[in-house]
Design a protein that fits this description.
With 417 residues, the chain is α/β, with parallel strands linked by helices. The protein is built from 14 helices and 16 strands. Its main location: mitochondrion.
């Protein structure tokens, strides 16, 4: 509803999955109004229905796009409330999404249901006979963004302990080996991908980010080297594991499915001022609730080449970019992946974190360093390719993942045995 007007609807299927129409940019909410100045906000229709049956002193609201996005158009509808309580699933990803939404909704009036084992989503609470009004009363106010006490940290630590298996982040479907090393994709981190020229950095990052977007990780692509239409074509080919030009009769069907993914593209190409790019990134993160930003690649964005004169200038510009994105990732709780070319190395030498163009600052600031490596197999005389996790601040685990390229599907995905 938007005022008294119906502007969309949700469907609930027999397998408990749901769909929203329109699937993007809905301008209304599902609401059970009780004429209160406080509202309880959930992401799923099942949770909404579970709460409607409870004796609660709150209006009950279901967001149109779940945890994926909180459209700006909804904010005026929520201005009437003095207090807002957000109750999402009890996992670390949902917890991070809820905290992100409070920044839009004004943190001072927001409280959160913490994702503890005995405080799952409302529908599960109803099924298990939990006391829902008691759980609602346990909602904790959101603290000031720049000031915390141990009381706040204590609850966060407890949340992580209860969710030790979930706090590691969103898992990859196409790259299960990465789950074993990196454990998952987490908000607030800075990752760097490097590799030799022509090694497939953009193609790999396209599929890596597509995998996450298919798991509802809202993604913003900044492709400064190749055009967006070429990138989108690559991603669609990877999504459906088939070349588009050989399946033109399926293009509209596939395009409709691809369009539903939470992927946005910056329109920049070639060299751009850092401030201009950061302004666009911050705007997109606020408006579209972006969880993953990709910059491909840093040298193209800054207009830096390895032959450029003035080492100090180009290094200082790259250091400023890395510092800006490091601060953005932490402050906005958004994952940033920077694709950076390596400096010139001798033929046959394996790359290391110190091979990243621009010096040591990039590797020092990064939480994760991923390197596409080439190695000649003397037995078969074939060039083998693999992804090396050379730094992993979250768990410390390092390792490699073999990369086998399917030229038809433009895919590095791990084949099922």
């Amino acid at each position: 509803m938007y005022g008294n007007e119906t502007v969309g609807y949700k469907t609930l299927k027999s397998d408990c999955s749901e769909e929203s129409f329109p699937f993007k940019g809905a301008k209304g909410i599902v609401i059970n109004s009780r004429q209160k100045k406080s509202a309880l906000i959930v992401a799923k229709l099942l949770d909404f229905l579970a709460l409607v049956s409870e004796p609660l002193e709150h209006d009950i609201i279901c967001l149109p796009h779940g945890q994926q996005n909180l459209p700006q158009e909804l904010l005026p509808l929520l201005e009437q409330y003095d207090n807002l309580i957000l109750w999402f699933d009890n996992d670390s990803v949902s917890w991070g999404n809820a905290k992100m939404f409070t920044k839009k909704l004004s943190e001072g009036r927001c409280s959160l249901i913490r994702p503890l084992e005995n405080q799952p989503a409302p529908y599960i609470c109803l099924k298990n006979g939990y006391n829902i009004p008691t759980i609602v009363k346990s909602a904790q106010p959101v603290s000031h963004a720049s000031i915390v006490t141990f009381a706040n940290l204590r609850e966060d630590v407890l949340t992580e302990l209860y969710n030790s298996d979930k706090v590691s982040g969103v898992k990859w479907e196409r790259f299960p080996a990465l789950n074993g090393i990196l454990k998952g994709h987490r908000r607030g981190e800075l990752s760097i991908l490097t590799g030799p020229t022509g090694s497939g950095k953009t193609t790999f990052m396209s599929e890596y980010s597509l995998d996450l977007a298919c798991s509802s990780v809202t993604t913003l692509w900044g492709s400064f080297e190749i055009r967006n239409q070429r990138l989108a074509k690559t991603m669609m080919t990877q999504m459906f594991c088939a070349p588009l030009e050989k399946n033109l009769n399926k293009f509209n069907e596939w395009a409709d499915k691809f369009e539903r993914l939470p992927i946005y593209f910056m329109t920049f190409h070639g060299q751009q001022p850092l401030n201009t790019v950061m302004e666009a990134v911050e705007h997109a993160t606020y408006v579209h609730d972006v969880a993953h930003v990709i910059i491909d690649n840093v040298q193209f964005m800054l207009g830096i080449s390895s032959s450029e004169a003035g080492f100090l200038d180009r290094f200082s510009r790259q250091d400023a970019l890395i510092a800006s994105f490091r601060n953005f990732a932490t402050t906005c709780n958004c994952h940033v992946t920077l694709v950076i070319h390596p400096r010139k190395e001798r033929d046959g030498e394996q790359l290391t974190p110190n091979s990243i163009f621009g010096g040591a600052k990039a590797a020092q600031e990064a939480d994760n360093v991923l390197i596409i490596q080439h190695k000649m197999s003397h037995a078969s005389l074939k060039l083998r390719k693999y992804l090396q996790v050379a730094k992993n601040r979250f768990s410390g685990d390092l390792g490699i993942m073999p990369l086998e390229f399917d030229k038809e599907a433009l895919s590095f995905r791990t084949k099922q045995k």
